[in-house]
Amino acid sequence: MTDQQPGDRASASESGPPLEPWEVFRQEKEGDAMRHGGSVMAPDAVLAVHYAREMYGRRQESVRLWVVRRADVHDLSDQDLLQPPLDRSFKKPGGYVMRDKLAAAREQSGQSKPKARAGRSKAAGGTDR
Amino acid sequence: MTDPLALDPILAPGDRARLPFNEDIPHDERFRHFEEHVLAGGKVESTDWMPDEYRQGVLRFVEMHANSELMGVLPEREWIMRAPTLRRKLALTAKVQDEVGHAQLLYRVAEDLGKPREAMFEDLLAGKTKFHNVFHYPTHSWADVGVIAWLVDAAAIVAQQALRDSSYAPYARTMRKICWEESVHIMHGRDVVVTMVTGTPGQRAALQEALDRWWGPLMQMHGPRSEREKDRDIHWRIKAKTSEELRQEFLSIYVPRIRELGLTLPDPELRLDETAGRWVYTEPDWQELRTVVTNHGPKSEERLAFRRLNYAKTQWVRDAILSASSGGWRRGAPPPTSESERLLPAEGAIS
Amino acid sequence: MTTTRAALAASVDPATRAPLDELLLSMADDEFVIGFSDSEWTGIAPLLEEDVAMSSLAQDELGHAAALYTLLAEIRPDGHDADAIAYDRQPDEYRHARLLDHGRGDWAMTIARRYLYDTADGARLEGLVGSSFSPLRELVDKIRREERYHVMHATTWLERLAAREGEPRERLLAALEELAPDAATVFAPLAGEERLVESGVLSEPMALLEARWRATITPLFVHLGLPMPPAAAHPDRGRTDHREPFRWLWNEFTSVRRSDPVATW
To answer: Which residue ranges make up each domain of chain C?
Structure first.
């Protein structure tokens, strides 16, 4: 696009950006991750942001929006990279099962399983493994 | 879209552990893998390979849904102007806005399947694609507004809830958003109805009259009975329930709620057969349904003509924004309007 | 509720009450009436996304109207509620600016009207920011925040239409020309407004607020090569003598209520 002087007006014959999809990410409440909401059609960023506000924010359901041209989103869905087949359980909590070993250690020491901490409940996410 | 980590593949495409139908293998094999994937509950995204039958099936389904949301605005929009209180006016404006919003969401899903928006509008306006029967009928009074917002939306939501797990993931996600938004409409509609039913004799009479008129189209709305095994949309898991299952669900929830208001339904046969566990009713007029959805309903042509006229009248606006560059003047002098009145800062991006 | 209402009504000194009523009614009617034209785009706006946007603007205006009618209801002694004030008057009793009497028109007309109205309303709200009448001051604070979005939307469209040679710009110029005689009617002098200024309800007379409005929009109009709106052709009738489009509208928007005047809806 050439530099334009202030006041220059585009002529009717000049073709510019078509309507294209813009992806909208929204944050439902403060501190949340940005989550994909959907997309809007718009010719440029200004209108894309207006429309994102309308489609994903008009009823106060979002505290923040990000709007990105779909063409600028890089897609990675290669499963060899994202779901490689060899064991990777050492990278996850589920890869460390200690139930039997803990039971053996407690038996050996004559101690019983410590009581749950006061105020911590299962609902609060406190489980004792 | 580019894969930034795309190096020369060490493994041949066929050896890579991707969804097999996305690989470059013979069509029949791809079809078989795709079908297995869907029948096992797998999801399909817009960028996946799809057999034509699936793509066309989803597109047709979504397009009709989108068309219905858009045409569904027309029976109600004139009542925005006539809404008798400020709160009702706000509620109705918001409801109708949501219908347009749903049309936007659904046309977006359809566009991403490969059919441009303009083509869909043209087909709708030319009568080549359809929209649901209920939107071909006139509205006569404010009572219609209540009945539509409550019962037409209720019948729609029964269908929409059953689509929340559609195999076509973009559609499923949209359905979840739509169902969440629709729940408010039903409450608004029911509120209007209950207010009128406990109001003046004139209001009660208007409501009963509206219900008598709308019951036929409501019973036809989910469509004639079809056999589950022969239904391709069910086969491909685009939808999960048959027309009859949806209708039964609608009747189970809403007939008691209608009757508890002291309203009657114009079908003398309508009752719950406790033994069979299903509602019995007078067979809906399927001929009427066929006539109406092929655009021979009482208001079909008028509404299509209205949209055609307005679509043509606004073409200049679409042309204007498609070829205008928003930042043409920014490269020169800074914008004369204050920064707080700009939706985006002059540079345009988030920092 | 009655106690608060009585207290609120009592807090307004008698000399200020009538002009305050005029001010609130004019603002409420403005917001109420402009909402109708916006809503007329429902289902038929140029773009689906714009359809949704126009609806939001209409709802905002209506919400502002409702809040202003409610405030009016609280300071009037007759006990009528907001709906009664909004709906139960004859066409000649409405006090909206004649700028809003024009029919919906095409998209250019809608944008021109919205831009002129939203910027004018902005100047008026500025004049109420430090209002001595606290319920109004609080309400204005909220309304101004919402109105920012309206000015953003109207501005971006004004620029787009003005910058496109040919049909878009021509239509915009035609719309501005048609609206010209009424463009400044938002600032039509209110009866007794000197009292409002004296008592601190309003910071300046309407004439001065109009000057501020002009100063705000001049840079953009010059930049876009658009003709500045002239002074109102008939300032003394800026909020009366409503035209046929409004009379037709009145007939429509009161029809359901008039069909059953004792009913609750």
So the answer is: 16-228+240-255
First-to-last alpha carbon distance for chain C, in angstroms, is 22
| Beta carbons of C58 and B93 less than 8 Å apart | yes
The residue among C205, C161, C145 whose CA lies nearest residue B318 is: C161
Residue of C nearest to A16 (CA): C164
Distance from CA of A84 to the nearest CA of B (A): 8
- Chain A residues within an 8 Å CB radius of C169: 9
pLDDT single digits (tens) B221-266 = 999 998 999 999 999 999 999 999 999 999 999 999 999 999 999 9
- State whether B314 and C46 contact (CB < 8 Å): yes
Over residues A9-19, mean pLDDT: 50
> Is residue A38 predicted with pLDDT exceeding 60?
yes
Could you tell me the pTM of the whole model?
A: 0.86
- 8 Å CB contact of A44 and B104: no
CB contact under 8 A, C87 and B84: yes
Dist. CA B128–CA B108, nearest whole Å: 19
Kindly state whether residue B180 falls inside one of the protein's structural domains: yes
Please state, as a whole number, how many other Cβ atoms lie within 10 Å of the Cβ of residue B95: 24
Domain interval for residue B284: 52-313
What is the spatial distance between Cα C119 and Cα C121, in angstroms, rounded to a whole number? 5
pLDDT digits (tens, 9 = 90+) for B179-214: 988 888 999 999 999 999 999 999 999 999 999 999
Give the CATH class of A20-72: alpha beta
Summarised one tens digit per residue, pLDDT across range C42-56 is: 999 999 999 999 999
A 6-45 residues with CB below 8 A of C?
6-7, 9-12, 40-42
Check: CB of residue B344 under 8 Å from CB of residue A67.
Answer: no
Nearest to C150 by CA among C191, C209, C206, C110: C110
Residues of B in contact with C260 (CB under 8 A): 200, 202-203
pLDDT at C235: 87
Structure token digits, residue C240: 């009366």
Closest Cβ opposite residue C223 in set A7, A12, A51: A7
Residue B323: the pLDDT is 67
CB contact C223 to A (< 8 Å)? yes
Asked if B94 contacts B86 with a C-beta cutoff of 8 angstroms, the reply is no
Residue B340 confidence (pLDDT):
54
Placement of tokens 């069509």 in the chain = B27
Q: Are C248 and C103 in contact (CB under 8 A)?
A: no
Distance between A16 CA and the closest CA of chain B, angstroms? 4
All partners of chain A with 3 or more CB pairs under 8 angstroms: B, C
From the options 1.20.1260.10, 3.40.50.150, 3.60.21.10, 2.60.40.10, give the CATH code of C16-228+240-255.
1.20.1260.10
Chain A residue numbers with beta carbons less than 8 Å from the beta carbon of C165 are 9-12
Mutate to test the interface with B, among A79, A82, A83, A86 (most CBs of B within 10 A): A79
Rounded CA-CA distance C29/C23 in Å is: 10
A2 touching chain B per CB within 8 A: no
What confidence tens digit (pLDDT) does each residue in C185-229 have? Answer: 999 999 999 999 999 999 999 999 999 999 999 999 999 999 999
